[in-house]
Amino acid sequence: MAQYEKILLKNMEQPGYSGSLKEYEQAGGYQALKKVLKDFSPDAVIDAVKKSGLRGRGGAGFPTGVKWGFIPKDHPGPKYLCCNADESEPGTFKDRQLMERDPHQMLEGMVITCFAIGAETAYIYIRGEFRLGAQILWRALDEAKAAGYVGENLLGSGKTINIYVHQGAGAYICGEETALLESLEGKRGMPRFKPPFPATHGLYQKPTVVNNVETMANIPHIINNGAEWFASIGSPPKSTGTRVFCLSGHVKRPGNYEVPMGIPFREFIYDLGGGMRSDKPLKGFIPGGASAPFLKPEHLDVKMDFESVALAGSMLGSGGVTVMEEGTSMVWAALRLMEFFYHESCGKCTPCREGSSWLVQTLQRIWQKKGRQGDIELLEELCGNIAGRTVCAFGEAEVGPVLSTIKHWRHEYEALIQEAQVALPPNKELPVFSH
Ligand SMILES: Cc1cc2nc3c(=O)[nH]c(=O)nc-3n(C[C@H](O)[C@H](O)[C@H](O)COP(=O)(O)O)c2cc1C
C-alpha cells in the first residue's frame, strides 16, 4: 500500500498528540504567523495562496486566493472572516476531526487570512451538534489569546484580530455561505440572492470571506513551505495539495484519509479502505458528499481531483466518499438521501420546498411497490423543475442522487414498478396522492 506524506493530519497522527498550544508549537505551530507578520504584506499572502492553487474544501472548489482578492482594499468599515464549520453534508466528517484534534492549525490559518484580507474580526460558525468541538475551540482560543496569537496587539505587531465561536442550531442549509451569514446575524438561516456576493456584501452587508475549516488549515503550511511546494502536490495545475477524504459505507476500514489529490478511487476504496466489508462486488459510490451524483464500478479508475470527477459526471464536493456494495437497492438509497434533503429544505424557494416533498412521495411509492407507469418520467420532470430554479445550490444538490440512480440503475426502478403493476387488480388505478 502506498504511503503518502500527511500535511493536515500529521500532528494528530503522532502518538499522544493532544492538540494543546504547547504541542502545536513544538510541532512548528504559529511559525507561519510569525513569518507573515515579519516578512509579508497582505498582498504577498494573497499572492502566495493564489500561486499555491489552493481551492476551497467546502464543496464548490473556488480558488481561495482569488476569493480573498475580491475583498475591497479601500473599504472604510469592518471586514469579516467566517470559517464554515457547519459540516452538514452527509458522509462528510473531516472538519470535525481537524477542529477537535488540531484546533490551532485552523486558528493559525484564520489569523493569517484575517491579516491578508484586512479583517479584525472572525467567526467560526460551528454546527450545534459539535459541542465537543466548540469546547475544544474555546479552550484553544483562550490559549492563543494568552500567548498573543489572537486578540489585541498580535505578537506586538499593533494588529488586532479577534476570533469568536458561534454555535449553529443544526440545519444543513446553514452550511450554505449566505444562509450561514443570515444565521450569524441572528436571522432565520435562509440563503440570500447572489449577486451581491459576500466579498462585497457579506456579514452585516460588509466585505466578508467565508472559508471552510480544511481550507483554513492549509494556510500555515503554504506559508511555511511555499506556494510552489503546495502547487507541486496532487494533480497540478487545477487540483493541488492533499485532501482529507472521508470514507464511509460498506467498506472494511471507514475513516478519514489524507491523500494527494488525484489518486484513483480504486486505490482509495480498496487499498486504504480495505474494499467491501462483505467481499461482495462494489455496486456504486458517492464521490463527494450526499449531493454528488453516484458513480459506478466503471469509474473506479477516475482520479480523485476536481476535473476528473466532473468529467465523470459528478463532483468532488465536500470530499465524502460513501460506498455501497452489491445487494443495495439504489431506489432505496435515493429515497433515504431524498428524505434527508426534504427534511432540510429551508422552504424559501417553492421548487425545492414542494418538489422535495413530491420526490420523496414518488420514491416512497415506487419503493413500496405501489409505483405507477410514468413515475420515472415524473421523477425526472420534478428534478428538472428544481435544479437551476432555486436561490442556492441546494436545488442541484437534492436532484443529484435521484437523477444519477435513474441514469445508472433505471432497471431497478422499472422492476419495482413492474412488480406493482402485477400486484394490482386489472384496471385498478391507485389513488392520486394529495397533501
Ligand atoms: C446546501 C449547501 C450546504 C453547504 N454546506 C457546507 C458546509 O457544511 N461546510 C462548508 O464548508 N461549505 C458548505 N457549503 C459550501 C459553502 O456555501 C461555501 O461555498 C464554502 O463554505 C466556501 O468555503 P471554501 O471556499 O473554503 O470551500 C454548502 C453549500 C450548499 C449549497
Task: Describe this entry's structure for a reader.
This protein folds into three domains: 222 residues, 3-Layer(aba) Sandwich (Rossmann fold); 82 residues, Ubiquitin-like (UB roll) (Roll), CATH 3.10.20.600; 92 residues, de novo design (two linked rop proteins) (Up-down Bundle). The longest helix is centred in the C-terminal third of the chain and has 30 residues. The protein starts with 20 loop residues before the first helix and ends in a 12-residue tail after the last helix. Helices cover 42% and strands 12% of the residues. Helix 5 crosses helix 6, helix 13 runs antiparallel to helix 14 and helix 15 runs antiparallel to helix 16. The strands form three sheets. It has a four-stranded parallel sheet, sandwiched between helices. The chain has 435 residues and is an alpha/beta fold. The relative contact order is 0.12. It has 16 helices and ten strands. Flavin mononucleotide binds next to strand 4 and helix 16.
